[in-house]
Amino acid sequence: MKKLCTLFLSLLGPAALAQAGPPPAAPADTSYWRTSLKAGVNLNEALVSDNWKGGGASSLGLSTLFNGQAHYRRGPQSWDNEADFLYAGQYTRGQGYRKTNDRLWLDTKYGHQLSQKWNAFVALNLLSQFAPGYDYSGEAPRLVSSFLAPAYLTNAYGFEFRPTTRFTLRLSPFAPRLTIVRDLARFQSLPTDQVYGVAPNHTTRWEILAAQILASLDQPLGPTANLKARYLLFTNYGMFRLREINHRLDLTLTAKVYGLLSVNFQSTVLYQYDQDAGLQFSQGLGLGLLLTRQKPLVVAK
């Protein structure tokens, strides 16, 4: 009997030790997505009494921003997606409500790696605005833009230079673009007027033989600040003149002050000949709340 107990314990020992050992390693993360989210709301306010002799008017401004990105990497393949929205308006006593900034940007791109820093790609992006915009320079406000009026839908093919994860440069020698103007008659002074390059009695304009350059920078400035810049160039081969090359630069600078409290600066510089022969500029500075979330990339092996 004693020998039988000894044999039983000798068989049981290794099994008990195996159970008491370190737990099995967690399965490797097989997600090849890197995602980020940035959402903010900002307020600015000025209050002036009716008998204030220094002049001025009470005002209340609100601006919102949203940027969401999702990037997929696996082997030589990549898929990048971005939604970038901005809207701002201000109510001023005696003038009412006026929009001060408005941007709708959607972009998706599939790439195939050719070398360490170069990809071949195909992309589709949409640029427009959300709300009606007015020109207040005359006696009465005049409607000059609205949702999908105009909107620019561009299908770009070419090569992308990506020296770092923070900067990309897309060179697209073939980038057909569709210009959309919903209900064009709303913007015409005369029935023969073109609106954003779209002919009368039409709502779209195709530019097939065209090129696009898109440069993007997403650069941290220390642990609490970030600079995001996007430069967009577009030209039509059939109307290739220096003065008719479109340029657009969007800048967003955000800096956290404490917790969710942040300061942000947005600016857009635009030159587009079929909109205006001069340089267009908008800028906003605000204090508010900023929420950021990020999921890191898991590199495929």
Task: Please explain how this structure is put together.
6% of the residues lie in helices and 57% in strands. It has 301 residues and is mainly beta. The chain has one domain: Beta Barrel (Outer membrane phospholipase (ompla), Chain C), CATH 2.40.230. The strands form two sheets. A twelve-stranded antiparallel barrel has the order 1-2-3-4-5-8-9-12-13-14-15-16. Strands 6-7 form a two-stranded antiparallel ribbon. The longest helix has 19 residues. The protein starts with a helix and ends in a 6-residue tail after the last strand. The C terminus is likely disordered.
What can be said about the biggest beta sheet?
12 strands, antiparallel, barrel
As a whole number of angstroms, the C-alpha radius of gyration is 28 Å
* Overall morphology: flat
Count of extended strands: 16
**CATH class group:** Mainly Beta
Low-pLDDT residue spans: 11-20, 297-301
Query: What is the second-level CATH architecture?
Result: Beta Barrel
Q: Could you tell me the CATH topology label.
A: Outer membrane phospholipase (ompla), Chain C
Supply the helix-strand structural class.
Answer: mainly beta
Q: Kindly estimate the percentage of residues that lie in beta strands according to DSSP.
A: over 45%
* Order of neighbouring strands in the sheet with most strands: 1-2-3-4-5-8-9-12-13-14-15-16
* Average residue pLDDT: 88
In which range does the helix fraction lie? Answer: under 10%
Distance between the termini: 57 Å
| Overall domain count | 1
* Order of H and E elements: HEEEEEEEEEEEEEEEE
How many alpha or pi helices? Answer: 1
